[in-house]
Specification:
Layout: H1 2-7, E1 13-14, H2 17-22, E2 37-40, H3 44-57, E3 61-64, E4 81-84, E5 91-95, E6 100-103, H4 109-117, E7 121-122, H5 135-141, H6 148-151, E8 158-164, E9 170-174, H7 186-190, E10 199-206, E11 208-209, E12 216-222, H8 225-237, E13 244-249, H9 250-260, E14 270-276, H10 281-294, E15 297-302, H11 306-317, H12 319-324, E16 328-331, E17 334-335, H13 341-355, E18 358-364, E19 369-376, H14 385-400, H15 419-438
Helix pairs in contact: 8-10, 8-13, 13-14
Length: 450
């Protein structure tokens, strides 16, 4: 590694085992392999130099951003070089006229949104970790978020990319325009590829006009999680077009209440938090409230101030941290057609009861993305058999209902054992062949995603 140290500016290559270990894992329970070193890159050229060296020396490379991933995609593999992009934090362009931003991968998601709002715009994707997750990580997993019911996932806001390939060549994909169909969609291919095809070093991102007024917000409580899911289906079917529609089950609410004392009622089994940022938001929210009550809500209230609205949304963003306080977590994110959401909720509840496993569930309910979190005692190197059995039932149920194994967290290491159930042999073969085109030596995040 001496030649790599010599080729990069001083301090870029880390060899201290304790420091390397701090970059070797994400937010999963997975134990990392022993990495040979870490590179803390600050520029595209430093990334290119690193990958050229890795190719010449046949060293696997694991790219990472902030390490907030939940599928193990940024977990170090044995003998790898960790390539951290968290120091590449520049927003190199923000054009109000064209409604685009150009950002490096280490930019914090919420920081890009704040920069856009200074010009009356917004960056729409907002994963729950938006205050700590990076644009690069969001691109790598095609992250969604609370507003994706209306504005789509990260791919829907990505116009073009600068990517360094495994051999150090620089590839520019996409465009700066709102439309463009020249050639194959390489931008879409790289978004969600989890660092297995190359390293994203810059992204041209679509911005949108920020709502003129703060969104109207409603919170509804239910005595049945399935009733809450039925209310979601009714809201979507009625054409209310929410900009946020988040569902939390009793176990999640209790975890938050035990931590933050939100005043959870004994009879409440689920809470639905909805927003509308449309011009007629008050009308839309009123209709959503009616539909909640028609589907069994015991209480529905509209926020009267922006501060109240922010407090309601903050409850949703606390969900994962609250569950981490209970134990180790296997975090999943199956996605089903929206009409199948009530049945998917029932399948999760049945799996929890059948295997006596604590499952805390939240959902980006408006697009059918369900996050069942399987909680187990700390200290295990992996989840106990009953947790895997319950997870297996949940995954198979999602596929049976016409859904997918992952809506936004990615495959990483955690879901590879189920991948063939969804992909099938033809898709699996094609994906391996595509990877071989970009990464013939299989050094880019090997063992992940496919």
């Amino acid at each position: 590694m001496k030649d790599l140290i010599a080729a990069l500016p001083e301090g870029r290559v880390v060899t201290d085992p304790d420091v390397i270990d701090s970059y070797a894992r994400d937010r999963t329970f997975l134990g990392p392999g022993q990495a040979a070193g870490a590179v803390l890159a600050r520029s595209r050229d430093e990334v290119a130099t690193t990958l050229k060296w890795a190719t010449a020396n046949r060293v696997p490379v694991v790219p990472r951003g902030a390490g907030t991933g939940l599928a193990g995609a940024a977990t170090a593999v044995e003998g790898c070089l960790i390539l951290s992009l968290h120091r590449m934090t520049a927003i190199t362009e923000l054009s109000p006229a064209d409604e685009i931003a150009v950002a490096q991968p280490g930019v914090i998601t919420a920081d890009l949104d704040r920069a856009a709002r200074a010009h009356g715009l917004m960056y729409a994707p907002d994963p729950s970790s938006y205050e700590i997750s990076t644009i690069g990580g969001n691109l790598a997993t095609n992250a969604g978020g609370l507003r994706c019911v209306k504005y789509g996932v990260t791919r829907d806001s990505t116009l073009g990319l600068e990517v360094v390939l495994a051999d150090g060549r620089v590839l520019n994909t996409g465009r700066r325009t709102m439309k463009g169909v020249t050639g194959y969609d390489l931008t879409g291919l790289f978004v969600g590829s989890e660092g297995t095809l190359g390293v994203i070093t810059e992204a041209t991102l679509r911005l949108r006009r920020a709502p003129a007024e703060p969104p109207a917000t409603i919170a509804a409580e239910f005595t049945s999680f399935r009733d809450a899911a039925a209310a979601v289906a009714a809201i979507i079917a009625a054409g209310c077009q929410p900009s946020m529609l988040e569902l939390l089950d009793r176990a999640t609410l209790k975890a938050i209440d035990d931590w933050k004392h939100i005043g959870l009622e004994a009879a409440t089994q689920a809470m639905l938090i909805g927003q509308s940022d449309a011009a007629d938001s008050a009308t839309a929210i009123a209709r959503m409230g009616e539909l909640c009550e028609e589907n069994g809500a015991t209480f529905a209230a509209v926020s009267s101030t922006p501060q109240e609205a922010e407090e309601l949304v903050a409850v949703r963003r606390l969900a994962y941290e609250a569950k981490e306080r209970l134990g180790a977590c296997l975090v999943e994110d199956v996605c089903v057609p929206r009409s199948a959401l009530p049945e998917m909720i029932s399948e999760v509840e049945a799996a929890a009861a059948r295997h006596d496993v604590l499952i805390c569930t939240v959902a980006h309910a408006g697009d059918g993305n369900v996050h069942p979190v399987f909680v187990f005692d700390r200290g295990f190197t992996e989840p106990p058999p009953q947790v895997w059995a319950a997870a297996d039932e949940v995954f198979r149920a999602a596929l049976r209902l016409g859904g997918t194994l992952t809506g936004e967290h990615g495959v990483g290491l955690l879901k590879r054992r189920w991948l063939a159930l969804e992909a099938g042999p033809v898709v699996t073969d094609l994906q391996r062949e595509i990877k071989a085109v970009f990464d013939p030596l299989n050094i880019m995040n090997p063992g992940k995603a496919i």
